[in-house]
Amino acid sequence: MSDHDSLKTSTHDLPVSDRLAEFMRTGWADTEARDLTQLENAPFHARRRAALSALFPGETLVVPSGQLKVRNNDCDYEFRPGTDFAYLTGEYEPGSVLVLAGSDATLYRRPRSSRETDEFFRSRDGELWVGRRWSLAETQIRLGIACADVADLEKVLTELDPAATRVVRGFDAAVDAAVGTTDDGFRDGALVAALSELRLVKDDWEIAQLVDAADATVRGFTDVVRALPADRDSSERLVDGVFGLRARHDGNMPGYGTIAAAGAHACTLHWWRNDGVCRPGELLLLDAGVENVHYYTADVTRTLPINGRFTDVQRRVYDLVFAAQEAGIAAVKPGARWRDIHKACMTVIAHGLAEWGLLPVSAEESLADDSGLHRRWTLHSSGHMLGLDVHDCARARAEAYLDGELKPGHVLTVEPGLYFQADDLAAPEEYRGIGVRIEDDILVTADGHRNLSAGLPRRSDEVEAWMADLRAAGPRFPG
Q1: CA-based Rg of the chain, rounded to a whole angstrom?
Q2: Binning pLDDT at 50, 70 and 90, where does residue 14 land?
Q3: Mean pLDDT of the chain, nearest integer
């Protein structure tokens, strides 16, 4: 067997002769791009790196993008870069690593596979197989950051002082191993928390990405209504697939597992199987968001009457959730605290349940911290931060998140819900199996708030009119 045959990656790969390998190395045009300009987002990433470095003076910060993950055999999942890495660099390739030391930032990444070697046509990661990579020089121009070959990274990392180095761990085992640790992860944890807290307030470019994701999500919900039959059974997988088509067409994919919960499935808060039946006369709870090409995601929920009309009981539940969401959105403003939004939603919910006679205590008693009986039917919180992650900034300290003051640039969801389990004997029979959630993406502005997903109707009569108009126009898919 020749040396070239030793490059085979699987037993079904065809052998390559020495003559073919030599022929493949010659006769290729120069494709280096020399007319590139810096991307519009590059200055934003530079400012974020500077803000992070200022929090850890005299230290080196190491942030990997992550590696490909095997789905089965030689097939990988589609790569999604680590959130912190994407936030700091704008680079989305696997195997890349940012090394940040004060004002010095270096992006280590794979260079292009030269046409003068066998890699470009023989390696599993060669450009003939997976496409052209940006060269180091091209990347440096586009992202405005110094670039180096990732092959040189191990030596750099092993020479770092662990006592003056922090790593975002869990994304690249080789990076984790190359940099030692001296404090059981407390230093690294502080880095991750700092990144989450920096990401709480979005800059102008990030807000534009979230608007883009929300707009695409509105189009996805519109597609679903147009495709969902009003007069016959269909499937949750139809809903999932139609929304997924829009997400794939207008962005990367859904930003999280779509919840297409029909009937009593809507009472399972994180229903993910999406293998049920959508029956006219029941409700469909659709919780979905498009992740745009820069990995920012929307997160929107609408609860829709499958046949286009709410029953009296469905409307009663829906209208209470809508009133709760209205109160929560109204509470979003600079200086408010995240808990204020949740409290506003829950006050409306508790009083509504008390009026219906469902609570064994008064609404005021239920709202007390040592009670919370209304939560039997609304267990989750009324929102969360939103951004590169659907549950964004999750590693921020409680004093910066749960108890932190809202500022212009915060983006959060407001999403109260009511869920009456099918076997809940504490609820009247007519309510059982009904689940309703309404969720929108809210930007805190200098003078209040802006609903980024306002393109979708929320009030029950507006939802019915919207569905009727869309169905009258007929199906239409992305294009």
Answers
A1: 26
A2: confident
A3: 94
